[in-house]
Amino acid sequence: MPAADTEVDVLIVGGGPVGLTARALLERWGVRTLLIEKHRELSPFPRSRLVNTRSMEIFRQLGIAAEITGKAFPREFGRIRFRDTLHDGDFATAAMVGVNAPIPESPVIGVATSQDRLEPTLLAAADAPLRFGVELLDLTEEPEGVVARLVDHRSGGGLRVRARYVLAADGANSTVRQRLGIDTNGPGAMAAVTTVVFDADLTTWCADQPAGVYFTAHGSFLPLYPEGGWAWLAPTPEDPDRADWADLVSRALGPAAAVRADVLRVQHWVMNAFVAERFRHGRILLAGDAAHALPIIGGLGMNTGISDVHNLCWKLAGVLRGWAGPSLLETYAAERQPVAHLTLRQAVANTQLMFQAQSLRQQQLQSGEAAPARVELPWSDRYFAQLGLVLGVTYRSAAVLTDGSPPPEPSDVATDYVPTAEPGHRMPHLWLGPDRSTLDAFGEWFTLLTPDPARWEQRTAPPWPLRVETLAAEHTGLCGVSPDGALLIRPDGHVSARWRDRPPGDSALVRALATVTGSAAV
Fold first, then answer.
1. Residue 323 near residue 521, CB atoms below 8 Å
2. What is the pLDDT of residue 370?
3. 317-337 b/e (C-beta count within 10 Å ≥ 16 → b)
4. In whole angstroms, what is the distance from residue 33 CA to residue 332 CA?
5. Beta strand 158-168 with 284-286: parallel, antiparallel or unpaired?
6. What secondary structure letter does DSSP report for 418?
């Protein structure tokens, strides 16, 4: 076979938030990557609107959370509002939990921001090679890697890249997934939607009651940036090529608005809902929308993809660096595919509840009776109260060693979050010092949290990257350990093992690391 033009450890296909986050994470592990994106530049469309608490924790680990927050809307925009038209009063409203105000369960707060404001920050978070205007044509798997055939749309020339692994983050219409013949499960296409980006002075109706999204009977209005700009989302008309978008937006604003929209960009897209049947095909792994496309209501899609690569990248690094066995990659799908199915159910439920609230209002208005000033939302105040999904994800795989402890009390898995250090869960946020969380102790290494670091530091654990951190005595109760116990935390912040008391023998830590990483180095 002819030699490749370039050889890398990981080829990342797709330059959206998920691919860009993977590029930044892998660079910190010293993994050689090349990211390709078929478009010639970052997307100019707002797309995703919400960076949730868990994603902000990951961005804090990358050192970019403060910059993202600085470019986002103030926290009072962490709310949705339902109105008949934009210039009417609210008939219902709901807060985005973890965005509209700080929460004790995390050292960070999520933000409302547009994807086109987020992506440049993610792009600047790494120096690894990136090629815009380069599209994947096909893939050929080899025993020790994958050969990708690409085309450069700028020059028209072709090139070949050989990679040890391919990470496909190329969206809901993933070329990689289609080339591999991986099918999907779920409702599929739920709606054809058009996004119209426009300028107009709408502060009269919104300045005193800010929101990240205004749902109306004539489509949804979204403020784009703190300094101005708007987007209107509505069902795509039957003949979009002949549509007068400025007139449609102005009509959606309502006759009393007397505002003419200055349309800047228009994009047609499909709201999909599915999960891929497989997240892996040999050395090729799917992430983000390529693995699961989620309805936008609730802001779960991009954030789920970011958690995908946070789960995957440390595993790729371990296999590539030799301190983990190839079997570790099997735990990616085992851990993330159940999360995708659970999140899809929640996103579909969010969409149905939103339609239900709008339909109820429309029925009231069409009945000819005086509609009440407010409508009781079908979900009360629990819409966007999704901390169970955001922070409470539980992994069950070979990369987690259970300790036989009973599981936490049953709760609403989507909305309720109960902090626990049970193996498989995200390690709870606890303060280790001034402005230093337990989450800040995690990075490109395993972390051993223990009240007695001197005892554990004597237990060497090469070849795995490992740091020992002191767990304050005041936190031992919540963590379920004695003064002699310890927690082993994976690089993605999930508890991989727990010793409630002194472990049986000096080799317990080494055996745990070898088991979790699928390594033969015992």
1. yes
2. 54
3. bbbbeebbbeebbbbbbbbbb
4. 19
5. parallel
6. -
pLDDT of residue 415: 65
d(CA 81, CA 86): 10
69, amino acid identity: T
Q: Look at residue 26 in the predicted model and tell me its pLDDT.
A: 98
- Concatenated DSSP letters of 322-359: TSS-GGGGHHHHHHHHHHHHHHHHHHHHHHHHHHHHHH
AA identity, residue 230: W
**Contacting residues for 198 by C-beta, under 8 A, at least 6 apart:** 229, 230, 231, 232, 245, 246, 249, 261, 262, 263, 264
At residue 223, the 3 state secondary structure works out as strand
Which residues, 6+ apart, have CB-to-CB distance to 38 below 8 Å? 133, 134, 135, 136, 153, 170
Cα separation, 497 vs 486, in Å, equals 8
Helix, coil or strand: residue 438 = helix
What pLDDT score does 436 carry? 95
Quote the Cα angle for 42-46-48, to 5°.
100
What is the sign, positive or negative, of the torsion defined by CA atoms of 328, 343, 278, 407? positive
Our CA angle for 126, 128, 132, nearest 5°, is: 100
3-state secondary structure string across 300-331:
CHHHHHHHHHHHHHHHHHHHHHCCCCHHHHHH
pLDDT along the chain (522 residues), means of 10: 79 98 98 97 86 97 97 94 85 87 95 94 98 96 95 93 98 96 93 93 85 89 92 92 92 81 93 95 97 88 96 98 97 97 87 74 69 55 68 95 64 72 97 94 96 81 90 95 96 97 84 92 52
Dump strand ranges (E) for 78-174.
79-83, 90-95, 111-112, 130-132, 134-142, 145-152, 158-168
d(Cα 330, Cα 368) in Å, to the nearest integer?
59
CB of 250 closer than 8 Å to CB of 393: no
If you ran DSSP here, which 8-state letter would residue 372 be given? P
> How many whole angstroms separate alpha carbon 51 and alpha carbon 68?
9
The tokens describing 446, both together, are 């395993």
Nearest to 48 by CA among 23, 76, 68, 26: 68
| 418, amino acid identity | V
From residue 100, alpha-carbon distances to 253, 254, 305, 394, 507 in Å are: 26, 28, 22, 25, 47
Beta carbons of 17 and 299 less than 8 angstroms apart: no
Tokens matching residue 292 = 């699961």
What local confidence, expressed as pLDDT, does residue 282 receive?
96
